[in-house]
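Readers outside the structure-tokenisation community will struggle with the description of the input data as it stands. What matters is that the chain and its backbone geometry are given together, residue for residue. For illustration, here is how one protein appears when written out as sequence plus structure tokens:

…
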Amino acid sequence: MDDYELFRLTGQLNDSLEKNIEALLKKDDNNLSINDILKIYSIYLIIKKQKSLDDKILKLWKDRVFKYFALLPYAEISNYFKRLDSEFTDKFWRIIELQGKYKEIPHKEFIKCEKVKQYNLGDILLNKRLAQYFEHEILDYIKERPIWISRILDKYIDPKNYNADWKIPNGIDNVETLNELVDKYLEYDKANPDYLMLIANAFDTGNFNIDDELKYRAKLKADSINDEFFNSGNTSQNSGMIETTVSLDPNVPLYDINTTDTGEKLRIDYKFSSSWLSKYLDYPTILNNFIYVFGITDLHYRATYLSNPFYDSWAERLFGFSVPSYYHNNMYFRHTLMRVIGSITLYRHFLEENDINLEDVIKWFFEKYLLEEFDVDKFRFNIPKSDASFLEKSRQILPEIDGLLKQYSYYVKHKDIDWKYLNTQAKPTVINNVPSMIQNKYAYLTPEIGKEISECLFNDQKLITFHNEKYKNFGAYIEHNSISTETIKDIDKPDINFLIKHNILMLKDDKLVLNRKYYWIIKDIYIYHEFEPYYYDHDVRETVKKMYKAHIIRFGSTLLSQDEINFFNYVMNRHSYANSLEIRNKMLHQHVDESDSENEETYSYIILILIQIVIRINEEFRYVDEHKSVQYKWY
């Protein structure tokens, strides 16, 4: 390893390298290569930042570099560019920008640079004046390489993956040209279907307003690519091809799940006991069946159909998009949601065959059950006529859901419902603001400490020296092993020390062992995104209090958990997610031209939201009724 390579790794300037630089500086331009001079400039930038060398010496280095560039024949700059080592191309363009020499480069010569040695457009976009001067050439470059179109569009579609230091020329960063680039990307034979859906669902901003027809074409192309892939015979469990069926069977217990892998697709058949469902047609059991038979929630009433990156397949982790404005729509989520929506539709039909309308059951819950069980009256829930179309039902039920949330919010605060006041409230209720009667109902990981702890424990890219075929992450390893402090490698020490500092690892008999009380709570939150302390005994609650005081967890006091709120907004509200189903806006404010089956599916989504609200409200009234002496507070 030569002195320069050693410097790049360590950042330390040794005597040998410094002497080498001094020798280079004494040479005349004819004996210096472009790579020699840029090597000096690279070292200069690092040493200047470190402030580890006298400023006068650094100035000599910089002056020598700039003098060299000042005398270059820019009309033939491609001859120098083609000899560049790849690591220096960004600095090459940067110096040209700083000296304003880009104006001396003929436009044809700039194009020639790319011909003789393909450059990274990102290096050029770091220089505002240079990029602006050659904006026409840059636009042609992007159009010829559509992969770059997505990188430019990322500024608005996927900011998380966009380099904020890039300076896109004004002639490109405008509505007209960006639409032109979108159109070009739609013609790209290797367009990514996930990215096409991002385009189709992109939010409009000042400089980014995609034409509706382009959005429509993007969706059509994405659907076409996905259909071709799934119908090509080139599918397997990992490809995302899952066929889900739901049915009734008198010969199964409560339910039965059968999985068949044909090699081309994974088939999952859910069978529910028609014998059980026929035997118990009372209203309380009908509502309980959504929990104990159809599994819409777990036994802590947490929704089971939500998006969760924990269940991403390896392919989704490797190739999938993660966009802040996009509801995470992985294969697990799509399959689970198909099962839940199918179950609701199936059960609703079954009840109707037994002369029961599910809407009547929900009305009973609010207007009779709450009064009889908890002495809570004044809740109202109006339902559509049983023979109304699904479109009419959807349009009538949606305002009722908003009304229920208003009623519950008012009740939590006043322990009563004032209809004169509620009738004056015209604004839609924001689900994020609907409170809980249970103070500090949910525990979440804090972003600064809690989530970093979970990353150290469960991210397969952290503490990798402890991974093997048996243990896929550090958490799995430390669950079953202790660690001798002498065996910890330097690369792992920062993360290990972080876990020790926050009491996740403890020293016992010269070995590090797991604080299991903390670990199981963190693991539960990592998997389910929340923890509900009020279901657990005093010891667990005390542990949660300690974790709160240590800033590992934070509390939330809303009716729905944050993930349930996110799902509600995904289904209902366009402004929350670019790929939202936007049912509220579609049903209440648009002309709907969909088939009866599509309108029925939409209605099943609305019923799902309503059932989850019913389950959570019932949970809270039961808890409060059982814990009146502590005023609904576990902490």
The first strand starts at residue 242 and ends at 249. The chain is about 55% helix and 5% strand. The longest helix spans residues 596-626.
